[in-house]
Amino acid sequence: ATLLSKTLEQTPKYSGKPDQNADEWLNDLIATCRMADITEAQALKLVPVFLEGHAKQWYSDNKETFETWNVFKTEFIRTYSSPTTTQLASNRLRTRLQHYDEPVIEYYTDIMKL
């Protein structure tokens, strides 16, 4: 198998269960697609492969509305991102300060993760 197929096989599936982080899953999927040179149009077609359970049913019920990758991302986050997760990230972003001996790139990377 090629590196691409192995990478895609190892990409976790998202089911919509409360113990899964929707934002993290979507960011991982985006990173995988970028690494594999998958376009946004191709990613939109591939998404159902990485969904299961309730999330796959949600996609199936709404796929006609996902005209673009950005529409899908917005609706996915709106549906599955926990308000608690969003609030925690917002709080961390507001209170995160660069430490005295912390390299700028490390601080920047940490902020971008939020």
UniProtKB/TrEMBL annotation:
Where the record annotates domain Retrotransposon gag, the positions are: 45-110
- Annotated Pfam families: Retrotrans_gag (PF03732)
Which intervals of the chain form a coiled coil?
none
Q: By what name is this protein known?
A: Retrotransposon gag domain-containing protein
Q: Name the source organism.
A: Rotaria sordida
